[in-house]
């Protein structure tokens, strides 16, 4: 299943393509959307479809539609979860039951202590991009009689998700996120307190993992003997290097957190595991993860031999089926392609086969930069760390003279720009701009030490890293125009963009920022991840934390608003009216500060969009306005 943006319709369209692979093993190659699942024996396909405000469960086989249940009309629960955070759709071994997660049924009004109902009682949710998710429940549908039941026995104060059948299909394994004393934002946050639980159909529940940890992505081996899952620390960085743990009778760590990888070595696990990642013999696990400026596919063998499987720029593993790996491959000048290859035996070479060549490639020139901070900018607690960047330049036909440079900064801050296809970067390069995508210290793929080095150093270390990367690129490539520099970023990338035009007012000519953090002190009470507001400036967080003048002063000191009076570059702000992560009033605060000084500023307000500004019409609007802003001021 593929998706493509249709700008005329203002929506994403989906279409399917099918390949038949002639091999020694019969392989059914199906890449499924998040809420679609194929049964293990008969190849029945379960699909969740929405029509007329109702959610339908459809069961298909080779002869067509075999069964359809209107889950909404059955009224056993609220909306079924289709997100990757909680959602699942899992067949039982007998293929007579399906497991999924949905919102609990609840009255539209709440009961007060004296028994009276009150519609105005506040209901917590799980924050940005999960605003409709409050109290998930594990549900089972019996396909023989069409009955739907909500499993009982989940401990109070737990939100279950990512459920799967345990061997024998008489119990389920799920991740439970603790939501006491109150919920914190969960999207993009792998540091939320959670545990692995096992619940039988009679309502008996036991905890399988340790306390005060975060867990995710349980994956059961084909023979049912071994369960793997990701595990990390609570609080601290909201995304970090995770361990890969194994439970087979007792619990052990298969891959530990990598603090500081050596060149060419495995750099740690930073991303969710594919839904199907086991080899057929239940001895190996395959997954993708960041490694410096790349995204690579690695395998874990029973003797812990870890090796990269290919040298193409970036590879995202989509699925493993009967040892056939399906990966999405791309580079900054090549849109994604599908490749397949069988997982080799020990010592054997791996051969990839491309299923479909990209519809077009581009003659952009791109290179990866390794950047070392100057001695005065070394982090004394985490000394010796370096970082990276990816430079993409337009085709020679568009770059007869010196090329304007757009410095593109990722958000997070604990994420990365791998050397893969990026639509924004490609669009800018096609229009004649060079683009420098910077992976400053704190980005994923460089080890846990790099991530921890940014704690308490935001607004200084990350700002200096970006500036060092830009100076390095200008020194190494004389075709770049040092007098035509722009800076672009969203969220923490917007935070850094505004810092750069404030701290280096004569260096950058123009800025475009999406939902930027402008004043961390005023953001404290409005963000769904209030814990990060403390952690980022070096304070420990606890749920009962009360803001102090010391903490608020530190947040203000590290914020771009303190440099607003020095900003000379024209600033374009793009804000989502429904942003729960970074309130749009953050951008408004900078807008007013610049307007009061007659500084050039333009603000775009997208009332129905959130933090990611991901609606199709919003994305097109943001890109076009950013390009026009760059052309106008460069």
UniProtKB/TrEMBL annotation:
Keyword Cytoplasm: yes
Catalytic activity: Cleavage of an N-acetyl or N-formyl amino acid from the N-terminus of a polypeptide
Keywords: Cytoplasm, Hydrolase
One Pfam family hit: APEH_N
Chain ranges of the Acylamino-acid-releasing enzyme N-terminal domain: 50-361
Localization per record: Cytoplasm
Main location: cytoplasm
Gene Ontology biological process terms, A to Z: proteolysis
Molecular-function GO term, any one: serine-type endopeptidase activity
Signal peptide: none
Gene3D superfamilies the record matches: alpha/beta hydrolase
E.C. code: 3.4.19.1
GO cellular component: cytoplasm
Highest taxon above the source species: Eukaryota
Domain Peptidase S9 prolyl oligopeptidase catalytic span(s) in chain numbering: 427-634
Protein family membership: Belongs to the peptidase S9C family.
Subunit-level organization: Homotetramer.
Protein name: acylaminoacyl-peptidase
Organism (species): Echeneis naucrates
Gene: zgc:136971
């Amino acid at each position: 299943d593929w998706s493509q943006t249709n700008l005329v319709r203002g929506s994403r369209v989906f279409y399917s393509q099918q390949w038949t692979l002639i091999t020694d093993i019969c392989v059914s190659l199906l890449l499924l959307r998040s809420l679609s699942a194929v049964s293990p024996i008969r190849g029945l396909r379960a699909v969740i479809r929405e029509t007329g405000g109702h959610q339908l469960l459809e069961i298909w086989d080779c002869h067509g539609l075999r069964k359809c249940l209107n889950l909404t009309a059955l009224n056993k629960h609220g909306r079924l979860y289709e997100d990757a955070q909680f959602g699942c759709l899992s067949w039982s071994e007998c293929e007579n039951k399906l497991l999924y997660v949905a919102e609990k049924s609840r009255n539209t009004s709440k009961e007060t202590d004296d028994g009276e109902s009150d519609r105005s009682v506040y209901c917590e949710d799980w924050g940005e991009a999960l605003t409709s998710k409050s109290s998930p429940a594990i549900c089972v549908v019996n396909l023989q009689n069409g009955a739907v039941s909500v499993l009982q026995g989940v401990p109070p104060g737990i939100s279950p998700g990512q459920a799967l059948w345990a061997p024998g299909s008489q119990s389920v394994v799920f991740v439970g996120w603790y939501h006491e004393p109150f919920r914190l934002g969960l999207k993009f946050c792998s540091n939320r307190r959670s545990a692995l639980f096992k619940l039988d159909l009679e309502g008996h529940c036991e905890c399988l993992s340790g306390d005060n940890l975060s867990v995710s992505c349980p994956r059961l081996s084909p023979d049912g003997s071994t369960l793997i899952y990701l595990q990390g620390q609570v609080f601290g960085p909201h995304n970090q290097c995770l361990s890969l743990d194994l439970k087979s009778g007792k619990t052990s760590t298969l891959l530990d957190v990598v603090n500081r990888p050596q060149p060419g070595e495995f750099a740690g696990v930073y991303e969710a595991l594919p839904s199907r990642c086991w080899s057929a013999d239940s001895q190996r696990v395959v997954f993708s993860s960041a490694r410096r400026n790349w995204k690579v596919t690695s395998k874990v063998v029973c003797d812990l031999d870890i090796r990269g499987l290919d040298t193409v720029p970036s590879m995202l593993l989509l699925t493993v089926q009967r040892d056939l790996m399906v990966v999405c491959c791309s580079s900054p000048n090549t849109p994604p392609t599908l490749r397949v290859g069988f997982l080799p035996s020990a010592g054997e070479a791996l051969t990839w086969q491309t299923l479909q060549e990209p519809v077009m490639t581009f003659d952009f020139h791109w290179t990866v930069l390794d950047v070392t901070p100057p001695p005065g900018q070394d982090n004394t607690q985490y000394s010796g760390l370096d970082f990276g960047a990816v430079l993409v330049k337009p085709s020679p036909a568009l770059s007869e003279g010196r090329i304007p440079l757009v410095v593109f900064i990722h958000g997070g801050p604990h994420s990365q720009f791998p050397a893969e296809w990026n639509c924004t970067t490609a669009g800018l390069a096609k229009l004649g701009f060079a683009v420098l995508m910077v992976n400053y210290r704190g980005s994923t793929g460089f080890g846990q030490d790099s991530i921890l080095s940014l704690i308490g150093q935001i607004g200084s270390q990350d700002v200096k890293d970006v500036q060092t990367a830009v100076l390095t690129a200008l020194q190494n490539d004389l075709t770049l125009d040092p007098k035509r520099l722009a800076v672009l970023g969203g969220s923490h990338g917007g935070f850094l963009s505004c810092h750069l035009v404030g701290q280096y007012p004569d260096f950058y000519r123009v800025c475009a920022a999406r939902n930027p953090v402008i004043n961390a002190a005023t953001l404290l009470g409005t963000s769904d991840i209030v814990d990060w507001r403390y952690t980022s400036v070096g304070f420990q967080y606890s749920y009962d934390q009360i803001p102090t003048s010391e903490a608020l002063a530190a947040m203000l000191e590290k914020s771009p608003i303190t440099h607003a009076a020095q900003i000379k570059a024209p600033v374009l702000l793009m804000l989502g009216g429904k942003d729960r992560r970074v309130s749009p009033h953050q951008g408004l605060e900078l807008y007013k500060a610049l307007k009061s000084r007659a500084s050039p500023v333009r603000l775009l307000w997208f009332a129905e969009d959130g933090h990611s500004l991901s609606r199709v019409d919003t994305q097109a609007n943001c890109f076009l306005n950013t390009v026009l802003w760059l052309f106008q001021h460069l």
